[in-house]
Design goal:
about 325 residues, alpha+beta, eight-stranded mixed sheet, five-stranded antiparallel sheet, elongated
Length: about 325
């Protein structure tokens, strides 16, 4: 179908991605910028067929700026949530498409691909100060800073799905606990603005963080985990692994132990695992006689899809080690 004319688009003040992209292409060409429409397809709509140049398989029109011959920089002019102008939804990262450089004299269609962005742009950083009770419950404050795709994710939950601030923040948190609840309504800033960062601060109560043992409490060496390694247990797979996007989940949790208990003489050894496109570390350290800090970092970078053979051979053993490292227990001895 034909894109809406510029006059009609300005008059209606709305249009689909093709209407808006074509308008911007015309406006930027008028200002001597070599920008072209780029037709692509969302990953959740199925595979993209490179040998089929048909508009019926495209569901999104973007902008492609030619930075050198056959090299382009892409922009997504329409988004469902407010984000910075250079943000591209993760559903289009790594996707192929066609740049239409057709002019009055020649028909030119150039195949291209949107590169997947790295984990450094998509960070979920969590800092907590929690107090452990004798019944194994943790409670206290948690500060969360979300960048890139993580920021878009919580914005989408709140602005599109209608989730409350409490439910949206709770959905972002994964861990070794039995249950987590947000106490009261957290403070969330940046969700309404076109920024790449959202911050959230709230009070949490975590049940099952520790369990009663012989003469003490057994506390796991990791409290907050992440949505990827928490479900990949390291078992051999028959299907490939497809990550939604690259990301880095960092947590630092200070824990005050209950009165009448003591930290053990030795704490779990630090763990660090890394290979191409993969990083994990977990550290448990003493802060004071009644305080310890647990730091954990997990990052996925590079390829968003891992073939079965590659995952089973290289990555499954690493995820198995993460599972083991996260559930190592330390004993808080009752005095």
């Amino acid at each position: 179908s034909q894109a809406m004319t510029a006059d009609n688009l300005l008059r209606e003040k709305e249009g689909n991605s093709d209407d808006i992209a074509q308008f911007l292409v015309a406006a930027l060409w008028f200002n001597n910028l070599s920008v072209f429409p780029f037709y692509t397809k969302s990953r959740d709509k199925g595979p993209f067929l490179k040998n089929v140049i048909s508009e019926t398989q495209f569901d999104r029109t973007m902008l492609a700026l030619e930075v050198s011959r056959r090299r382009f920089k892409f922009w997504q002019p329409t988004l469902d949530v407010p984000m910075p102008p250079d943000y591209i939804d993760f559903q289009f990262e790594g996707q192929d498409g066609f740049v239409n450089q057709t002019d009055k004299e020649d028909v030119i269609v150039e195949a291209s691909k949107i590169k997947a962005s790295g984990s450094s742009k998509h960070v979920c950083k969590l800092d907590g100060a929690l107090t452990l009770a004798a019944d194994g419950t943790l409670s206290g404050s948690l500060n969360c800073t979300l960048n890139g795709h993580y920021a878009a994710g919580i914005k989408r939950q709140m602005l599109i799905d209608g989730a409350s601030q409490s439910d949206a923040l709770g959905a972002m948190l994964k861990g070794t606990w039995e249950s987590l609840s947000i106490q009261g309504e957290p403070s969330v800033s940046g969700a309404q603005e076109p920024t790449a960062t959202v911050t959230a601060t709230g009070n949490v109560s975590i049940s099952g963080a520790a369990s009663a043992g012989d003469d003490g409490l057994m506390l796991k060496a990791a409290i907050i985990t992440d949505s990827y390694s928490s479900v990949l247990t390291g078992e051999e797979r028959e299907q490939p692994v497809v990550f939604p996007h690259a990301g880095d989940v960092q947590s630092s949790v200070e824990i005050t132990i209950p009165d009448g208990y003591a930290l053990p003489d030795s704490l779990p050894e630090p763990v660090e695992l890394k290979t191409r496109g993969f990083y994990y570390t977990r550290i448990v350290a003493r802060q004071a006689d009644n305080k310890l800090i647990i730091k954990r970092d997990f990052a996925v970078d590079g390829a968003l899809s891992l073939a079965v053979r590659m995952y089973n051979r290289r990555y499954a053993p690493l995820y198995r080690q993460i599972q083991e490292a996260d559930v190592v227990e330390l004993k808080l001895v009752k005095k």
